[in-house]
Amino acid sequence: xxxxxxxxxxxxxxxxxxxxxxxxxxxxxxxxxxxxxxxxxxxxxxxxxxxxxxxxxxxxxxxxxxxxxxxxxxxxxxxxxxxxxxxxxxxxxxxxxxxxxxxxxxxxxxxxxxxxxxxxxxxxxxxxxxxxxxxxxxxxxxxxxxxxxxxxxxxxxxxxxxxxxxxxxxxxxxxxxxxxxxxxxxxxxxxxxxxxxxxxxxxxxxxxxxxxxxxxxxxxxxxxxxxxxxxxxxxxxxxxxxxxxxxxxxxxxxxxxxxxxxxxxxxxxxxxxxxxxxxxxxxxxxxxxxxxxxxxxxxxxx
Length: 302
What we know:
The protein contains eleven helices and eight strands. With about 300 residues, the protein is an alpha/beta fold. It has one domain (about 50-300): Alpha-Beta Barrel (TIM Barrel). It has an eight-stranded parallel barrel, surrounded by five helices. The radius of gyration is 19 Å and the shape is globular. The two termini are about 35 Å apart.
């Protein structure tokens, strides 16, 4: 099967489990076609973790507002999106209000132009001001920002300093608006070769230097696994700067249970640390969405 378009392509221009027996025992029967299931039988109704379905990667063959309805029909109360440009924000807000679905976060600034180049900092400020307006329309508490691709002639240290400066400039804006910016480290081994920010250590250094309650990390467990592994202890060490969690299994960037990450253990660790925000489901389903959603339900069992 051909891999779907990656997030890098879409954003570049704009801006395991418990034992096999336990898993099988916990797997609900498929929903009967055309018949609504009792709420307890919906995959989105989990005991602990609130999953935010990434609607750029799930139900991509449907109009965007219909993807919201598809997520709600499976019991999910949270969604996330990438670019807000070109989307009918009022329609999204209306359908979310109707279905009692929350937008956990969206992307306010992408890979290109890079925040790591001071030449783009004025544009970055304007983009964040607009993001505050978008957040108010959508009722979203967070927005992702991306550091940028490598800049010719700049060291990694210089690029990270430029990211820090940019975030310091906008910190008062988002603090006043009540919008949390979440800086996302990527991985450069598989998905984002040439990106300047990867792994938890530099992201932690940047956010701790900015020192704002509204500038934290979008801690994508998929990227962290590829870059550094040791997910639970890394999460514990950096938890004071975690603004948001995202997941996908590795390899493949598919739903939990398709790869090497023991998400039951990792999600329990996040829960035990006190994480109660949604976890973004930023993965491509390997099977039909209504079946892949049960993998999330199983990953929340401990």
